[in-house]
Amino acid sequence: MIQYFSADYVIPVTSDPIKNGIVAIEDGNIVGLYRENDPAVKADVEHFSGVLIPGFVNTHCHLELSHLENVIPSKTGLIEFIGNVVTKRGQDVERIKEAMVEADRRMYESGIQAVGDHVNTSISAEVKSKSKIIYHTFVEIICMKDDEVLNKIDEARDIEFYFDPNHSSITPHAPYSCSKSLFKTYKKSISDDNIISIHNQESEEENKLFRYKSGEFLKFYEKMGIDVDCFKAQARNSIQSYLNFLPASNHTILVHNTYTSIKDLDFINRMARKVTLCLCPKANLYIEDTLPKVQLFLNQKFDIALGTDSLASNDTLSILEELKTLHKANKELTFLETIKWATINGAKALGLDNEIGSLEVGKKPGLVLLKNMPNLKINDSVEVQRII
Ligand SMILES: [Zn+2]
């Protein structure tokens, strides 16, 4: 049976907003978009006060860290944060699973339709297989020791085996946690459809490491017993040092970009790769107490997407809350631009744009209502309600 829903505005995302528009849905599939009083609408229409949008895409999360909500101290900087996650993440398996089920439920209710989710273990496989959310799982590789490279890639493949083969890939974790020789071997070992998602320039310490071989990461390596004698200062920021190590034809999501400069963006542009910049503003405030320089990213050639990161560094897993944070800090942003970041751009980055990310006939993108949103402006009073 076809159901009809209308609202003050319908935002299809990939086409113009429709004032007093109507969305027709059958079994979750979009079967039509109409203007008010369209004679093609032959049944009752359920009207909502607010704005109807497709389900959100959370391009970056770590579901398996959900049990660390309110555990890790905030605003310590990235290196202390990583140390805390490493020492505090191990807990009772049942407790971890319960926290993931709850986080998955909260994400779905807050209108999230798909998630790009990083893992180091297979513990989230069961939750994901039962979820209403579509997950793309990124199995992280962390490897600073040359003699462990092959083993670490094999280990990642073994973990990937537990997840949906159509929605999983293996990926380097971050430039500071992967050696040059890992990058080289990784490049040779993946196929063209393996989506890459790498933490990028989340801390200025990462740039210091690559630029001058100095800063907090050196102390961190010493503490962890990692020998970086062979690593040479590159006299340029991290992204300019490692992007060429990644295979050119694979879609690459650069996550965070908090300390990415205009020069770095020029460099990425010159490389002419399929790159999505994923911003996680609330996690940046939690860990580094700063925000990415959004104004630099506007009008660039690459897409911007949004992620929540994990509950270890966030108090919500809500894309609406990420939008509120960005709009509060950047008054020049318009909702009609950022709604793409929150939906279709993430869907494209995860290879899901044929199914979700916009209200288009033939897609099954979910239907979400934003309430208390006069003049299509995002402010603190906007609330989200899942309709379908
Ligand atoms: Zn992350």
UniProtKB/TrEMBL annotation:
Protein known as: Amidohydrolase family protein
Domain named Amidohydrolase-related: residues: 51-372
SUPFAM superfamilies: Composite domain of metallo-dependent hydrolases, Metallo-dependent hydrolases
Matches recorded under Pfam families: Amidohydro_1
Keyword match Transcription: no
Organism: Sphingobacterium thermophilum
InterPro entries (alphabetical): Amidohydro-rel, Metal-dep_hydrolase_composite, Metal_Hydrolase, MTA/SAH_deaminase
PANTHER family, alphabetized: AMIDOHYDROLASE-RELATED DOMAIN-CONTAINING PROTEIN, AMINOHYDROLASE SSNA-RELATED
Keywords from the named record: Hydrolase
